[in-house]
């Protein structure tokens, strides 16, 4: 089965809403396209970081200081994958914030 790399990139970005850890790992394991693999690693690390940051924010929401962070990280976790999907559909290069330069090295 030969699917356009854009489809794989869209799937990896969209996985944030249904399988944020499993899909990037599976795509990385089975797809040989270099750009798709790079996006898979970035998406996995992004999802992991967002999960940790949101968990910490939930914990600190008990003392009210975490509520703004929870809102911010929740929005970032929602908006960044949407931007990635739009870039993938247009077949434009996309790198997750702070992660793209680390993964490319």
From TrEMBL:
> What is the protein name stated in its UniProt record?
DUF4870 domain-containing protein
What is the topology of this protein in the membrane according to its UniProt annotation? Multi-pass membrane protein
Pfam families linked to this entry: MamF_MmsF (PF09685)
Record-annotated membrane-spanning stretches:
12-31, 43-63, 69-89
Q: Which organism is it from?
A: Seinonella peptonophila
Keywords assigned: Membrane, Transmembrane, Transmembrane helix
Task: Give yes or no: UniProt keyword Membrane.
Answer: yes
Lineage: superkingdom: Bacteria
Q: Where in the cell is it found?
A: Membrane
């Amino acid at each position: 089965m030969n699917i356009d790399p854009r489809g794989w990139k869209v799937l990896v970005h969209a996985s944030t809403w249904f399988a944020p850890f499993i899909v990037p790992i599976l795509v990385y394991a089975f797809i040989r396209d270099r750009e798709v693999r790079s996006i898979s690693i970035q998406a996995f690390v992004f999802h992991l970081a967002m999960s940790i940051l949101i968990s910490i924010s939930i914990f600190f929401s008990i003392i009210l200081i975490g509520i703004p962070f929870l809102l911010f990280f929740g929005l970032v976790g929602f908006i960044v994958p949407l931007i990635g999907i739009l870039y993938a559909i247009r077949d434009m290069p996309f790198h997750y914030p702070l992660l793209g330069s680390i993964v490319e090295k």
